[in-house]
Design goal:
Blueprint (H helix, E strand, L loop, with lengths): L16 E7 L6 E7 L5 E7 L2 H11 L7 E3 L1
Parallel strand pairs: 1-4
Antiparallel strand pairs: 1-2, 2-3
């Protein structure tokens, strides 16, 4: 009843989007999301405040560290 909450893995369209972390060069703010490889449109998923938030994003979608690219 009071156990640890399971992290559910969600899916995303691996053929049309890729995981991206957008980082501001001005203030360092980072946002995780998915970028459409055909249109370049970015869909924000969550704000990254620290390394733990990045790990939550990657575990939620089953992404490894080498799959995520960083854009400025």
């Amino acid at each position: 009843m009071f156990g640890k909450k399971k992290v559910q893995t969600e899916t995303y369209d691996k053929e049309n989007v890729r995981p991206v972390i957008r980082a501001s060069i001005c203030n360092g703010e980072q946002v995780a999301g998915f970028k459409n490889v055909h249109t370049g449109k970015f869909e924000e998923i969550m704000l990254i405040g620290d390394e733990r938030d990045k790990e939550v994003f990657m575990s939620r979608y089953g992404i490894s560290a080498d799959e995520v690219t960083k854009e400025y």
